[in-house]
Amino acid sequence: MPSPSSNTSDSYDIAFRFLLTVFAIVVPLAHVAWLSGNITAYLTGTAWAPYQPTAALLHPDKLWPAAGETSLLISTRIVPIAVLLALGAAVGIVWARHQGRGGREKMVTGMAKPRDIEPLMAKAITDKARSLRPSLKNAKRIDGDDTGILLGNLQDSKHEVRMGYEDVAVAIMAPRSGKTTSLAIPSTLNAPGPVLLTSNKAAGDAYTATIDARARVGQVWSMDPQQIAHATRAMWWNPLADAKTLDGAVRLAGHFLAASVDASQQGDFWSKAGSNILSQLFLAAALDERPITDVTQWLAFPADRTPLDVLRDHGFTAVAAQLKGTVEGPPETRDGIYETARQYAAALLNSEIAAWVTPQAGVAEFRPPEFATSTDTLYLLSKDGGGGASALIAACADSVMRAATAQAERAGGRLDPPMLAILDEAANVCKISDLPDLYSHLGSRGIIPVTILQSYRQGQKVWGDAGMDSLWSASTIKVIGSGIDDPDFADKLSRLIGDHDVETTSTSHSQSGKSTSVSMRQERILPADAIRALPKGTALCFATGMRAAMLDLRPWYLEPGTAELSAASARASKAITARAVTKHAPTQGDYGTAA
């Protein structure tokens, strides 16, 4: 039971607060009444009253005896109350906004401030660009897009955050969280050098939003074996150009393996054996300068001695012996291995797909070494789960990055301007098995990969636990968008962001009165549930050696001057629709002849 002294203290406290509230209302009301009454007196030509706010509120007729009753009612009653209500409403709005910002600031207390991520800010990133790119060394003014890729603004500020042209990035963003509109499209539009972009969509996506703008700065190449954009076949690429060595042939076969089998199954006997047969046949076809489709014929007839003879003629006797041992081995084993290889290369049986990787009369050949020194754009399109078709997409992307690496070494170590590789939907359409290993040196060559995934587990499925951990660790920039529903990954991110000190105030009552104590405790800066609930349009940025930052994303369609880009995107989308309608339009033969 509360003591009598405690009840008395509480009563005094309530009375004091009541008097304070009355004072806070009456004092400004009286002053507004006095000021409003004098303004009315001045306008009506009556005498100005002395400073007596209390009289103005209680006895205005004595303060302005010559004024009319109506004017006094309006000036000393209605106007002060209206002004006070308006002032209260304004204060309420400001307070609400302050509380809203305060709640947001509270959520990100302990996150990076500008000084914490200074290497990603304008001055530092510009100085870094001068040292990385000889072409900018003596430039008086450098455009921001020449210094790095815009990731967004530091939350609630105008400070732009960019990754430099020696960084390598992985972005984990759920569908419709801004991965394309805020990362893939702006990066492609503003890239100073060649751009490689993979995607599994065309209409209304990065392809249509950027193709017109990129065509103005260089040639546009579109590899669309599954006709996602229904693009005219204006190019072909030879996947065997890099398969004239055993290592190159093994890499090419590895892409077919990765496109067909998850990382957890790639080590079993049949998968490895089928991949080995493919690599041996790819090597033979490349050495004999045959089209890749000849491999499907050899797979259909294991007894064909042509690949054996080619390998021996070019000095690959050990490879020929291994192929011969498989062909002449137990029929059950041989048939199982060849059937596995046939499944991996099944896409090459499709003439529409094969046409993109075999010589075509009157069609330009895409050459990766030439692309690396250009300002061209290569769009690699494939459907989710495209099997062998996605293997060709991955092989082409890999070939481009390897050619760019060789060119960088010839140019003194780095490409200038750098090459951007936006691997959107990488886990679906561009499964490069050793991509985590490539990350360790691509950035130092001026080749900037940005691998975009929908979830961390999606990467684990493609590269395995160790491979995805390697990719995550090798990435100098990590962008995490909204929609993270994996509790383990969200908790991992929460632990990476860290803890901060929170002040806790506690109040206790006793017979001697009320006492207050203040203590400090550790609390997660962003708990897992807050990471899961990140609002759309925001993202977390983890940069090597820096505090985690909260970013406001910058969608391309909200930037100044995008009306023309939007119109071009709409035209490109309509063109895709028109091509699809034309392609699938029924012919008279589909309906037969009329009776």
What's the number of helices? 23
Which structural class do you get from the secondary structure elements? Answer: alpha/beta
Share of helix, binned: 40-55%
How many strands? Answer: 15
- Classify the beta-strand content into a percent band: 5-15%
CATH superfamily of the largest domain: P-loop containing nucleotide triphosphate hydrolases
CATH third-level topology of the largest domain: Rossmann fold
CATH class of the largest domain: Alpha Beta
Describe the largest sheet: 11 strands, mixed
Explained architecture:
- The chain is an alpha/beta fold and 595 residues long.
- It is 50% helix and 14% strand.
- It has 3 domains: 4-107, no CATH class; 115-238 and 362-484 and 534-582, P-loop containing nucleotide triphosphate hydrolases (Rossmann fold); 240-358.
- The protein has helices at 4-44, 53-58, 60-63, 69-107, 122-132, 180-190, 206-215, 246-260, 269-287, 294-300, 306-313, 317-327, 331-344, 351-354, 368-371, 388-410, 426-429, 435-442, 456-474, 487-497, 528-532, 563-583, 588-591; strands at 148-154, 160-164, 169-172, 195-199, 220-223, 235-236, 364-365, 377-381, 419-424, 447-453, 477-480, 499-510, 513-524, 538-543, 549-552.
- The strands form 3 sheets. An 11-stranded mixed β-sheet has the order 2-1-15-14-11-3-10-9-4-8-5, with helices on both faces. Strands 6-7 form a two-stranded parallel ribbon.
- β12 (499-510) and β13 form a beta hairpin.
- α7 (206-215) crosses α22, α8 (246-260) packs across α9 and α8 packs antiparallel against α16.
- The protein is elongated, with a radius of gyration of 35 Å.
- The model is unreliable at 100-107 and 591-595 (pLDDT under 50).
